[in-house]
């Protein structure tokens, strides 16, 4: 395909004039070849590993986001290929990664942020001794204001709000009621936003009040996991997660099921590690049926089925390469209506973890989809989102764009940002980027309160007074719940248009002809629109 943004700041991005504007590094043999259709591309090979391509020197601007894309192929087999930007201050920044193959082109999407000005270089490198083919390279700059404007106006504004028509008519004869006053009061926000929850909430009213007044979704940090409910073989104890779920339900907080299994060897109980394949299958079947039957059928809103199965492979090593797809199949048979998530870290956070890059995430999800009997499963994408001290926001957006091609619900499931001088600012950037992406359907932070300290990021002190990151969270919650408070008046046809953030509302209608106000509950979501989904209110 042609380069995005016509190549941006990259010159000769399609190599139509040879290697003009590109530099061949020492030790690299490079040329421009043509396909049978006449398409030109650069081919580069390095003596030894990693193989490296030609590079282009570009003028890097300060305080600028850069969106990167290119098409890649390798001469034989497959290879992990990374896009690298050498910044003006001498750092080598990974801007994206993908699995490149021989015989077909693969797209790489990513990006990076520059905080300094000067000359930089863009190139690609592989982890195998192969020739790398490169074509349609693009590096497009955006000022921070341009990036924010796109996110706020074109993405968040369209994805999280709807304008719908409300028709007010008399209940007796259906005649329209002009000049009626219509107001809307938000009862519950539509976009799911939550936080991790710990067992301490059961004995701490201040923790309970703080959590329930802010969040609509919870994930139990550890309490629903296998090692928490069956620490000794055959001795199940669900009292703690039962009590936590009951507390959440009292407050209308929905809970994600975390998790059925965890593929990490280090999290397995000694008695599980000691089991042979047949014994393990039996123990897993008992665990799966126990937890999914107990909390399925609508009590939880999603299941993390085999947690982190790109990084770890305990069940695959014990039971074979189709262990994960088979587990999804079993969970789906018991609870076919609840979305089944593939929950993973370092897919959206940064591009240097080759185990979890977006192309490998897509391949694993397709393996689960293609397993016999899994065609009808309600699958979903779970991205943990444990960011370092300086999140790569352009890479985050590019990865979300890539995973959106799966056409599955996407949640950011365990958001936190490592401590640093600008932690609150960077958390706000991450949350705004997630909320602003039209394919993100929910977000949960990993900032559970503990008396002994938080995992990475604390929102409050021990008295539940906000820290700086907590102020950011409260600010965004208030902003995302905002809707016009001014009353609107129906026209001659009894119609009024309301622009509302998605959620559940009490809509109140007043008119001199009414003895008392009429109040109706109204749900506004992505399917609501003024032209297709007018709401009739009979008074």
TrEMBL record:
<dbReference type="InterPro" id="IPR003305">
    <property type="entry name" value="CenC_carb-bd"/>
</dbReference>
<protein>
    <recommendedName>
        <fullName>GH10 domain-containing protein</fullName>
    </recommendedName>
</protein>
<keyword id="KW-0378">Hydrolase</keyword>
<dbReference type="GO" id="GO:0000272">
    <property type="term" value="P:polysaccharide catabolic process"/>
</dbReference>
<dbReference type="GO" id="GO:0031176">
    <property type="term" value="F:endo-1,4-beta-xylanase activity"/>
</dbReference>
<dbReference type="Pfam" id="PF00331">
    <property type="entry name" value="Glyco_hydro_10"/>
</dbReference>
<keyword id="KW-0677">Repeat</keyword>
<dbReference type="Pfam" id="PF02018">
    <property type="entry name" value="CBM_4_9"/>
</dbReference>
<keyword id="KW-0624">Polysaccharide degradation</keyword>
<dbReference type="InterPro" id="IPR044846">
    <property type="entry name" value="GH10"/>
</dbReference>
<feature type="domain" description="GH10">
    <location>
        <begin position="177"/>
        <end position="476"/>
    </location>
</feature>
<dbReference type="InterPro" id="IPR017853">
    <property type="entry name" value="GH"/>
</dbReference>
<dbReference type="InterPro" id="IPR001000">
    <property type="entry name" value="GH10_dom"/>
</dbReference>
<comment type="similarity">
    <text>Belongs to the glycosyl hydrolase 10 (cellulase F) family.</text>
</comment>
<keyword id="KW-0119">Carbohydrate metabolism</keyword>
<dbReference type="InterPro" id="IPR008979">
    <property type="entry name" value="Galactose-bd-like_sf"/>
</dbReference>
């Amino acid at each position: 395909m042609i380069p995005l943004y016509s190549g941006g700041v990259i010159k000769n991005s399609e190599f139509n004039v040879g290697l003009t504007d590109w530099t061949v590094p020492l030790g690299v043999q490079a040329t421009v070849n043509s396909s049978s259709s006449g398409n030109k591309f650069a081919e580069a090979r390095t003596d030894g590993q990693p193989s490296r391509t030609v590079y282009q020197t570009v003028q890097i601007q300060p305080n600028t986001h850069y969106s990167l894309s290119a098409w890649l192929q390798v001469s034989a087999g497959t290879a992990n290929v990374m896009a690298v930007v050498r910044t003006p201050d001498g750092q080598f920044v990974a801007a994206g990664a993908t699995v490149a193959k021989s015989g077909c082109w693969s797209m790489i999407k990513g990006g990076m942020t520059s905080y300094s000005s000067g000359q930089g270089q863009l190139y690609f490198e592989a982890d195998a001794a192969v020739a790398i083919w490169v074509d349609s390279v693009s590096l497009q700059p955006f000022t921070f204001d341009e990036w924010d404007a796109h996110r706020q106006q074109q993405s968040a504004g369209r994805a999280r709000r709807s304008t719908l028509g409300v028709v007010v008519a008399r209940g007796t004869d259906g005649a329209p009621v002009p000049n009626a006053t219509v107001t809307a009061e938000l009862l519950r926000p539509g976009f799911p936003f939550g936080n991790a929850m710990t067992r301490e909430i059961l004995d701490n009213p201040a923790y309970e009040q703080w959590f329930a007044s802010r969040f609509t979704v919870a994930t139990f940090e550890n309490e629903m996991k296998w090692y928490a409910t069956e620490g000794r073989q055959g001795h199940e104890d669900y009292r703690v997660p039962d009590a936590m779920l009951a507390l959440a339900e009292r407050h209308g907080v929905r809970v994600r099921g975390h998790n059925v299994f965890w593929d990490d060897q280090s999290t397995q109980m000694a008695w599980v590690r000691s089991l042979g394949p047949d014994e393990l299958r039996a123990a897993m079947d008992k665990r799966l049926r126990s937890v999914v039957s107990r909390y399925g059928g609508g009590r939880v809103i999603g299941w993390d089925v085999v947690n982190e199965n790109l990084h770890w492979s305990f069940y695959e090593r014990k039971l074979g390469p189709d262990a994960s797809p088979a587990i999804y199949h079993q969970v789906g048979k018991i609870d076919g209506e609840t979305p089944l998530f593939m929950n993973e870290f370092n897919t959206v956070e940064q591009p240097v973890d080759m185990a979890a890059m977006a192309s490998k995430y897509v391949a694993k999800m397709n393996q689960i989809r293609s397993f016999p009997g899994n065609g009808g499963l309600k699958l979903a994408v779970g991205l943990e989102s444990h960011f370092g001290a300086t999140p790569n926001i352009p890479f985050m957006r590019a990865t979300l764009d890539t995973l959106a091609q799966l056409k599955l619900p996407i949640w950011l499931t365990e958001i936190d940002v490592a401590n640093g001088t600008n932690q609150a600012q960077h958390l706000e950037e991450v949350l705004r980027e997630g909320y602003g992406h039209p394919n993100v359907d929910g977000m949960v932070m990993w900032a559970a309160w503990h008396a002994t300290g938080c995992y990475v990021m604390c929102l409050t002190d021990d008295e539940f007074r906000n820290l700086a990151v907590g102020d950011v969270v409260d600010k965004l919650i208030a902003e995302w719940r905002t809707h016009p408070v001014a009353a609107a008046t129906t026209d001659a046809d009894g119609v009024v248009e309301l622009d509302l953030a998605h959620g559940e509302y009490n809509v109140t209608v007043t008119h001199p002809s009414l003895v008392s106000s009429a109040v109706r509950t109204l749900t506004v979501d992505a399917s609501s629109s003024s032209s297709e989904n007018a709401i009739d209110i009979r008074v």
